[in-house]
Design a protein that fits this description.
One of its GO terms (molecular function) is alkaline phosphatase activity. This is Alkaline phosphatase. Its EC number is 3.1.3.1. InterPro entries: Alkaline_phosphatase (IPR001952), Alkaline_phosphatase_core_sf (IPR017850), PLC-like_Pdiesterase_TIM-brl (IPR017946). By secondary structure, the protein is of the alpha/beta class. It folds into two domains: 235 residues, Phosphatidylinositol (PI) phosphodiesterase (TIM Barrel, Alpha-Beta Barrel), CATH 3.20.20; 333 residues, Alkaline Phosphatase, subunit A. 33% of the residues lie in helices and 21% in strands. The protein has a ten-stranded mixed sheet, with helices on both faces. Strands 1, 2, 3, 4, 5, 6, 7, 8 and 9 form a nine-stranded mixed sheet that branches. It has a three-stranded antiparallel sheet with strand order 10-21-20. It is elongated, with a radius of gyration of 31 Å.
């Protein structure tokens, strides 16, 4: 259901987030020192590579130092012949490649030998996607125009060149990074160094030429910094890693455009030693600590969630696996028993277990379930269903019809048919549900690809507000579970824009619950997650721009602990570190049951 949702809206949320700009080219520095010269860089899809050459007895040899020259390491064998092969195989039809030839011996004689050698490879010199650039020892600037059209030069100065013909022969501007900073690529550039580095890049760009630093730190932090600064060609000794990272920035760096208005609670009933009348449990599916952190930073440094003071952590292991799924985690929270992955409301032997809604209805509570997933999804069905496998959706639909729930709001599930025959009155709009006087009601959430993002992120809050209103009007104690399911969905596809937008949506629902608790003064609100999804980290960002960079380590769940927050009467009971199935027992304890 969750992945179908993503497909149906065409990753609409992510498209509405502001992505990162087009990345720079990646240059394989001293490429000949790689385990597989040329071919490794070519396979990594670099746009530029560097080869040092010495003229030795009339032959162009490749090495870093003259003393390292070996008989087989010729420019032709290591680079020109492989490049010829790639051209003949059509491998440069849709990509460009710059070959930077760093001359280490006498400029004039070595360059003449290079030109002579290259004339034997017209398929290279005439190729529209190949650029040949001479660096290192070069002839006088004014003589650049004397060399063939296929020879361009690396200009290692920011002094303007006034001769237009000479400027045409300059391919790019390159300078040593160490002239301007000793930064090692960890942390950040100092303000003084940032000014110097920015200044030299601006001078190079004023010449309308691409710019490259050599002697640079080589790390993700450095690559991101150089990208942000507008460096056009990034030097690296890790071509594959650098290409992968730079290309990921368009997806891994987003600037948030939707926000949750932070509500500061009154705290008047928080942690008081009095049994609450009502319980609202909000579950962010896949919403680990880093997901919360990313939304907090993207929201200007705070959420309503981060205003809460009673905080703990849950371990999430299932009965049969190191890493839980949503079914086992939802069942642990709803029944108080650890079970196997994929099981819904059954123990590890497949026997049905009473869940919170069933227990509380028998104690005079009204109960409801809200989810941005389908109603037969793993988390919502854990609060009414009993099946040994989460994919038994037709059975779960039957469980819903037979359930004691008074309310459900979720995405439409095809398996749920003729729900009205089981006593649920389906309400056309969620807004109208809040004032309904029917005994049992249901409503479908409409997640359409045409829904503007600001309206999209309000849907769970609207459902939560109206769900609370409906249950409150029954004048009995109530229990409501509301799930932000799509945080998990976007975690599975490593989409940080979607994670943040759905986390903002979840925080808006939290705000509705906390506001009600402040007004009611007799409601306990609990916020947690079933597990973390994606192995998310956030190495960098910019709070002023609401920008977050994400790095995911998996497309699956992880076994990391998840936070639990509580607000209202007896909320202090939820502090500490404990297993997720203890949430069930703590809820019954604070209710005096």
């Amino acid at each position: 259901m969750k992945l179908n949702f993503l497909r149906s809206i065409g990753f609409f949320i992510s498209a509405c987030m502001v992505g990162f700009a087009q990345g720079p080219k990646v240059h394989s520095h001293n490429d000949y020192k790689q385990p597989l010269p040329f071919y490794g860089a070519f396979a990594a899809d670099v746009q530029s590579l560097e080869v040092d050459v010495f003229l030795v007895e009339g032959v162009l040899m490749v090495a870093h130092e003259l003393g390292e020259v070996t008989a087989t390491a010729t420019l032709e064998r290591l680079y020109l012949q492989p490049l010829k092969e790639m051209v003949e195989r059509g491998m440069l039809a849709d990509r460009t490649l710059q070959v930077l030839i760093d001359i280490k011996t006498d400029a004039m004689s070595t360059l003449n030998a290079l030109v002579s050698s290259l004339r034997n490879y017209p398929m290279i010199t005439d190729h529209e996607h190949i650029t040949l650039v001479v660096s290192g020892n070069r002839p006088p600037l004014a003589t650049y125009v004397d060399y063939p059209e296929f020879i361009l030069f690396d200009y290692q100065s920011t002094v303007p060149v006034t001769n237009a013909a000479v400027m045409e022969k300059i391919a790019m501007v390159s300078l040593s990074f160490r002239q301007f900073s000793e930064w090692n690529g960890k942390g950040r550039l100092t303000a003084a160094d940032l000014n110097k580095v920015s200044g030299v890049i601006a001078k190079a760009h004023a010449m309308n030429k691409p710019f490259r630093f050599w002697a640079t730190p080589d790390s993700k932090t450095a690559w991101k910094a150089f990208t942000d600064l507008g460096v056009d060609v990034i030097n690296t000794d890790m071509p594959y890693e650098c290409v992968s990272y730079v290309r990921s920035l368009n997806n891994s760096v987003v600037r948030n455009t939707v926000f949750s208005e932070v509500y500061t609670p009154s705290y008047s009933t928080d942690a008081i030693d009095k049994a609450p009348k009502n319980v609202i449990l909000l579950i962010g599916d896949g919403n680990g600590l880093t997901q919360i952190s990313s939304a907090t930073l993207a929201n200007g440094g705070a959420l309503t969630l981060t205003q809460l003071k009673q905080i703990g952590f849950l371990t999430t292991r299932s009965a049969d696996d190191f890493t839980t799924d949503s079914a086992a985690a939802g069942t642990a929270i709803s029944t108080g028993q650890k079970t196997n992955n994929r099981a819904i409301g059954t123990d590890k032997d497949g026997n049905p277990i009473p869940n919170l809604t069933e227990i509380l209805v028998d104690k005079g509570f009204a109960t409801g379930v809200i989810s941005t997933d389908g109603i037969t999804g793993a988390t919502p069905s854990s609060f009414y269903g009993h099946r040994t496998d989460r994919d038994m959706e037709e059975g779960l639909a039957q469980d819903l019809k037979a359930s004691k729930l008074h309310l459900f709001i979720a995405q439409r599930s095809d398996e749920v048919k003729a729900i009205e025959t089981s006593g649920f009155q389906m309400i056309n709009t969620i807004e109208a549900l809040g004032g309904s006087t029917y005994d049992k009601v249901g409503a479908w959430m409409d997640y359409s690809a045409n829904t503007p993002l600001p309206q999209h992120v309000e849907k769970l809050a609207t459902a939560t507000r109206n769900g609370i209103a409906f249950l409150q009007h029954k004048n009995t104690p109530f229990f409501l579970m509301a799930e932000g399911a799509k945080i998990d969905s976007y975690g599975h596809v490593n989409d940080i824009g979607g994670v943040i937008a759905e986390s903002i949506s979840f925080d808006k629902a939290i705000t509705e619950a906390i506001k009600f608790a402040d007004k009611d003064k007799n409601t306990l609100v609990i916020i947690t997650a079933d597990h973390e999804t994606g192995g998310l980290t956030i190495p960098q960002g910019n709070m002023d721009r609401h920008e977050v960079e994400a790095d995911f380590t998996t497309h699956d769940h992880t076994a990391t602990m998840v936070p639990i927050f509580a607000y209202g009467p007896m909320s202090h009971e939820f502090q500490g570190v404990y297993a997720n199935n203890e949430v069930f027992h703590k809820i019954l304890k604070v209710l005096g049951l």
